[in-house]
Design a protein that fits this description.
Number of strands: 0
Mean pLDDT: 83
Low-confidence stretches: 1-21, 41-58
Structural class: mainly alpha
Largest sheet: none
Strand content: under 5%
C-alpha cells in the first residue's frame, strides 16, 4: 500500500527539528529540576569536601583571643558562673584576715594612736575609687573605638561600685582628718579632687539613667568618662603639685614605703581583699546587667510582633 498523497503525489513530511527541539527542551528541564533538587537536599559541605578536593586548602589552627571570646555574652556569663564562687570565698577569707590583722594585731601609731587604723579602710577605698574610674575610662575606649559588646556593660556597672568606694574614702578621710587637722573638711587639693571624682561618678550614673536607649547612653557616658579621666592624675599628683595638708605618698614611693611593716602588712592584705571584693561585685553586676538587657530585648521583640499582628 502506498503512503503517498494521491492529490499531491508526495509523501507526508515530519517536523523532525521541532520534535527534536521539544525533546531536548524537556530533557533540559528535567535535568535542571534534578540539579535544583540535589542542591536543596544534599548535605552541607564541610571544609574538606570529597567532591572538591582541590578547591580548599587546609587552614592552620588559630589560637582564639580571650578578649574576643569573652565578647560573647553567653561565654562571659559561663565564665562568671565558674569564677564567682571561688572569688567570693577568697575575698571573704582575705577580708576576715585583714580585719583581724588591722584591729587586733596592728599596733597603734606613736603619734596618731588608734586612729591610724582608719587607714586600713581609707587607703584601699581611695585606691579603688581611682581604679574604678580608670576601668570606666578604658571601657569607654572599648565602646567608642573597638565597639566591644561588653564595654558599656563594664563601664555602667563599675560606676555605682566606684561611687561607693569614693564615698567611703571621703567619709573615712573626714573622720581621720578631725583628730589630725582639727576639722572634718578643708578645701585641700587632694580632698577637692576626690570630691570632683565623686561628682563625676554621680554624673555618669545620672547620664545612663536619663537616656533610655542603651547604645546612645553608652556613647554619651563614654565621652563624659574620657573627659573626666584627666582628674585621675590630678588626684594622684595633687600632693606633689600643691602644698596640701594631705600627707604625700607613703607606700608606693621611690625610696620604698615609709610605713612600719607592722602596719604595712595589714594594709596590703586589706587592699587585696578590697580589690577582690570590687572585682566580685563588678562581675555580679555585669551578669545582672546582661540579663536585664536580654529581657528588655525580648520585651521589645514581643511588642514589635504584636504590632505586626495588629497591622
Amino acid at each position: 500500500m502506498s503512503c503517498c498523497n494521491p492529490a499531491t503525489n508526495s509523501f507526508p513530511t515530519l517536523d523532525v527539528e521541532g520534535a527534536l527541539t521539544g525533546s531536548l527542551s524537556s530533557a533540559a528541564t528535567r535535568t535542571h529540576k534534578r540539579e535544583v533538587w540535589s542542591k536543596r537536599n544534599r548535605p552541607a559541605k564541610t571544609l574538606y569536601s570529597e567532591e572538591e578536593p582541590q578547591l580548599r586548602s587546609p587552614t592552620k589552627p588559630t589560637r582564639s583571643n580571650p578578649m574576643i571570646s569573652l565578647a560573647n555574652p553567653t561565654r562571659f556569663l559561663a565564665l562568671v558562673g565558674r569564677v564567682v564562687p571561688w572569688l567570693t570565698a577568697l575575698a571573704l577569707i582575705l577580708l576576715g584576715l585583714g580585719l583581724y590583722l588591722s584591729l587586733f594585731v596592728a599596733p597603734p601609731d606613736y603619734q596618731q594612736g588608734e586612729t591610724v587604723k582608719i587607714m586600713f579602710i581609707h587607703v584601699p577605698s581611695a585606691w579603688l575609687a581611682m581604679f574604678g574610674y580608670i576601668l570606666i575610662a578604658i571601657s569607654a575606649l572599648g565602646t567608642l573605638i573597638w565597639r566591644h559588646p561588653l564595654a558599656d556593660v563594664a563601664a555602667k556597672t563599675a560606676a555605682p561600685i566606684g561611687t561607693t568606694f569614693t564615698f567611703i574614702a571621703l567619709v573615712t578621710g573626714s573622720l581621720w582628718g578631725k583628730p589630725m587637722w582639727g576639722t572634718y573638711w578643708v578645701w585641700d587639693a587632694r580632698l577637692t579632687s576626690v570630691l570632683i571624682l565623686f561628682l563625676l561618678y554621680l554624673g555618669l550614673i545620672a547620664l545612663w539613667q536619663s537616656i533610655e536607649e542603651p547604645g546612645r547612653a553608652g556613647r554619651a557616658a563614654a565621652i563624659l568618662a574620657l573627659v573626666g579621666a584627666v582628674n585621675v592624675p590630678i588626684i594622684h599628683y595633687s600632693v606633689v603639685w600643691w602644698n596640701t595638708l594631705h600627707q604625700p605618698a607613703s607606700v608606693f614611693r621611690i625610696g620604698g614605703p615609709s610605713i612600719d611593716p607592722a602596719l604595712l602588712t595589714p594594709l596590703f592584705v586589706m587592699a587585696i581583699a578590697f580589690t577582690l571584693l570590687f572585682v566580685l561585685l563588678h562581675l555580679i553586676a555585669m551578669r545582672a546587667e546582661i540579663l536585664r538587657r536580654r529581657v528588655r530585648a525580648l520585651q521589645q521583640s514581643q511588642v514589635e510582633r504584636a504590632a505586626l499582628v495588629e497591622a
